[in-house]
Specification:
The complex is a heterodimer of chains A (about 180) and B (about 575). Chain A has about 180 residues and is an alpha+beta fold. Helices cover about 30% and strands about 35% of the residues of chain A. Chain A folds into 2 domains: about 1-80, Alpha-Beta Plaits; about 85-155 and about 165-180, ACT-like. Chain A, domain 2 (Alpha-Beta Plaits, 2-Layer Sandwich). Chain A is built from 5 helices and 9 strands. Chain B is of the alpha/beta class and about 575 residues long. Chain B has 3 domains: about 1-175, 3-Layer(aba) Sandwich (Rossmann fold), CATH 3.40.50.970; about 195-350, Rossmann fold (3-Layer(aba) Sandwich), CATH 3.40.50.1220; about 360-535, Rossmann fold (3-Layer(aba) Sandwich), CATH 3.40.50.970. Chain B contains 23 helices and 20 strands. Chain B has a 6-stranded parallel β-sheet, sandwiched between helices. A 6-stranded parallel β-sheet of chain B has the order 11-10-9-12-13-14, sandwiched between helices. In chain B, helix 7 links the parallel strand 6 and strand 7. The longest helix of chain B is centred in the N-terminal third of the chain and has 15 residues, at about 50-65. Chain B is globular and about 70 Å long. Residues about 185-190 of chain B have low confidence and may be disordered. The chains are: A alpha+beta (about 180), B alpha/beta (about 575).
Chain lengths: ~180, ~575
């Protein structure tokens, strides 16, 4: 078992999306995240799914998706071996006493405060799935009021990039663990 | 010359443009504009079925027998949902069916209107593709696309959903200069694989094999690769196995023909698989009814898999070499690369695996005797359409098919009730040639209402019923694996001879072997549809049998003395 990112380039069409998600649903693989958005090419969408399964089962899903008339391309990457990002908006309770601790966490995770009120802050962050998990864990003690977490997005590396191992490292998460107030 | 036409009229013109000559269907509210336009297109003959499921099976039967797309039409709601089993049958067996459904008017969609169902949603997983026509301007492109997709590459069913108000919309229409039909579409998903290295690797494997086998499936029939497969088998001396849907892809009188593999495959066929060192599979998907337990399937064999669909390579069994492309092309190229030889000792070894079985049947009515009589009585050129169950296995194994694509059955979905309506479609693809629909008493009763269709439309299909008073295959499983608890398998039948009489067709009942020839001869001679009921042994079993999930090495060859209770 391994975690895979499956990116499907498909026609911008609800029926195509319905068919694609049906193919994934039918195989009943655990889906960790789904995201959908436009690509650089007009009229196409990229559907990105994170599944945890063995390689053969993942390849079977990819092959079934490739048979779809509306699908142009399917790429499968091990999550650990590709550049992928998640995005989150999280509203955190804040008291004057905890404010500086919270600002430390925001700064350590290179997050951004996008809205503020006397009672709470709305914080935005981007990173890999493990980064996001650490970030949210770090915010938990302050009190998470609500959260909107987008699914993983991934772009396959260009052949040259893959050969050079040129992915820029994502902001590292574990280094802040000690700084988190209890 | 251009004219102003309704969507319904344009739909009829588009069908005509695609070379459609027959439409199987059933009218209703949301498809009324189409039926209003239909009589103005005399090139389209409409066959009124008695249930929409039969329309889909008939279109499927027509498609399988003719190689051209079969078309069925139904209204929205129950009409559309009744097509579902037929569409799923076509999907599992890669049959190019185009299903056209009426839909409630666009303004009513999503309001739970009368006879509204999301038929696109319902059929998403059982179609190769589906389209909704949202506006009359989309109609030409979407209909042409539907026919292209149904037939290109690996064929499959495509559904076109047309709201009633789109059928009534009007626009200017002129016949396209190029006729519009038969566009060749380059599918971005099906690149021509570079076979170079793989072809050589496959040829080397075949050349170095001591115990090679050919396993031939439906892809050889769909791809019209009979001659190529035969040339390869004869040149390389390789014995040939035909899967259920591959039956009739290779002449059964040929000395290299072994038979059908799998759950009800003969012992020598399955043992050949278990002893083979190289298996060349052409146009089959290594279905679980063929492989049994895949972990124990062909343990010594390196598998070369030829298929048009890249998704099939390695899907069910590990493959040493995969070759993606048309069977006709690849087999021809492979034949050039393999050395000529005869594999004598291997063929002798397989011959040594053969078993004789002796079973007794009520009134000496063995399946062999009945099927031989049907074959002799029908003469060459007959097509046998089977239903699903015990008789299907007998019809597959014992008829002795010589001509390509003369055996038609629901393999993947295993749809009881398939034979009678599918045979209607086969008749239209092969007019003037005998067509038999062979069913059990269970499957026959699922779609016997279609006798009325045959009578109304003058369709001379001959129906054979293997009547044992049981849902025989399920009863056999109950006998072997469920402690003889015949739960819900005894099945009462009407008096079929009187049923035939009620429909105004010839009907015969056969209780003794000596009556078989005459009943078959009279049924064949009758110019219209005819029915022959064979009262066969009630608790006959299909032997051998690999238990579900079992290994091909461990067949059941006789009824267990004390059946286990689960």
């Amino acid at each position: 078992m391994q975690t895979w990112v499956v990116a499907v380039l498909l026609r911008d069409d609800l029926l195509a999306l319905n068919r694609a998600t049906g193919i994934i649903r039918r195989r009943n693989l655990p889906v960790g995240s789904v995201s959908l958005g436009p690509t650089a090419r007009p009229g196409t969408l990229r559907l990105t799914c994170v599944v945890t399964a063995d390689r053969a089962a993942t390849e079977r899903v990819a092959n079934a998706l490739r048979k779809m008339i509306e699908v142009e391309e399917v790429v499968v990457h091990a999550e650990a071996e590709c550049t992928s990002r998640e995005h989150v908006l999280v509203r955190v309770r804040v008291s004057p006493a905890q404010l500086s601790g919270l600002l430390d966490v925001v700064s350590l995770f290179e997050a951004t405060i996008v809205e503020e009120s006397p009672q709470d802050l709305l914080i935005e962050a981007t990173g890999t799935a493990p980064f996001m998990t650490s970030f949210l864990r770090a915010l938990e003690p302050f009190g998470i009021i609500d959260m909107a977490r987008g699914g993983t997005v991934m772009l396959p590396r260009t052949p040259a990039g893959a050969a050079a191992g040129a992915a820029r490292p994502a902001p590292a998460a574990p280094r802040v663990a000690a700084a988190i107030p209890a | 010359m251009s004219e102003i036409l309704s969507g319904a009229h344009i739909l009829c013109r588009l069908l005509e443009e695609q070379g459609v000559e027959l439409v199987f269907g059933y009218p209703g509210g949301a498809i009324m504009p189409f039926y209003h336009a239909l009589p103005e297109t005399p090139a389209l003959r409409h066959i009124l079925v008695r249930h929409e499921q039969a329309a889909a099976h008939a279109a499927d039967g027509y498609a399988r027998a003719s190689g051209r797309p079969g078309v069925c039409v139904a209204t929205s709601g129950p009409g559309a949902t009744n097509l579902v089993t037929g569409i799923a049958t076509a999907q599992m067996d890669s049959s190019p069916v185009v299903a056209i459904t009426g839909q409630v008017s666009r303004a009513m969609i999503g309001r739970d209107a009368f006879q509204e169902t999301d038929v696109i949603g319902i059929t998403l997983p059982i179609t190769k593709h589906s389209v909704v026509v949202d506006d009359i301007t989309e109609l030409p492109e979407k209909v042409r696309e539907a026919f292209d997709i149904a037939t290109e590459g690996r064929p499959g069913p495509v559904l076109i959903d047309v709201p009633k108000d789109v059928q009534n919309q009007k626009m200017e229409w002129s016949r396209p200069a190029n006729g519009g039909g038969h566009r060749i579409v380059e599918s971005p998903n099906r690149p021509i694989a570079d076979l170079g290295g793989n072809l050589t690797a496959a040829a080397q494997l075949v050349a170095s094999a001591r115990r090679p086998l050919l396993m031939v499936g439906h892809g050889v029939i769909l791809g019209n690769a009979y001659a190529e497969v035969r040339t390869l088998a004869e040149k390389a001396g390789i014995p040939v196995i035909t899967t259920l849907l591959g039956i009739s892809a290779f002449p059964e009188s040929h000395p290299l023909h072994l038979g059908m593999p799998g759950m009800h495959g003969e012992v020598h066929v399955n043992r050949a698989i278990q002893h083979a060192d190289v298996i060349l599979g052409i146009g089959l998907r290594f279905d679980d009814r063929v492989t049994g337990n895949t972990a124990a399937f062909a343990p010594q064999a390196k598998i070369i898999h030829v298929d048009l669909d890249p998704g099939e390579i390695g899907k069910n069994v590990p493959v040493a070499v995969g070759l993606v492309g048309s069977a006709k092309d690849i087999v021809a190229r492979l034949t050039e690369l393999v050395p000529a030889r005869s594999c004598e000792s291997w063929r002798e070894e397989i011959a040594g695996f053969k078993r004789e079985r002796h079973e007794s049947y009520r009134g000496d009515m063995s399946p062999e005797t009945i099927l031989a009589a049907i074959r002799e009585g029908s003469g060459p050129g007959a097509t046998i359409v089977s239903d699903v169950g015990q008789h299907q296995m007998w019809v597959a194994k014992l008829y002795g098919y010589q001509e390509p694509n003369s055996h038609i059955s629901s393999g993947g979905l295993g749809t009881m009730g398939f034979a009678v309506p599918a045979a209607i479609g086969v008749h239209f693809a092969r007019p003037g040639r005998p067509v038999w629909a062979i069913s059990g008493d269970g499957g026959f009763q699922m779609n016997m209402q279609e006798i009325a269709t045959m009578v109304q439309e003058g369709i001379p299909v001959k129906m054979a019923i293997f009547n044992n008073g049981y849902l025989g295959m399920v009863r056999q499983w109950q006998q072997f694996f469920h402690g003889r608890r015949y739960s819900a398998t005894p099945i009462w039948s009407p008096d079929y001879v009187k049923l035939a009489e009620a429909y105004g067709i010839a009907g015969y009942r056969v209780e003794q072997a000596r009556q078989i020839d005459e009943a078959v001869a009279r049924a064949v001679r009758d110019p219209g549809p005819a029915l022959v009921e064979f009262l066969i042994e009630q608790e006959a079993n299909v032997f051998p049998m690999i238990p579900p999930g079992g290994s091909l090495s461990e067949p059941i060859e006789s009824a267990p003395a004390a059946a286990p209770v689960p």
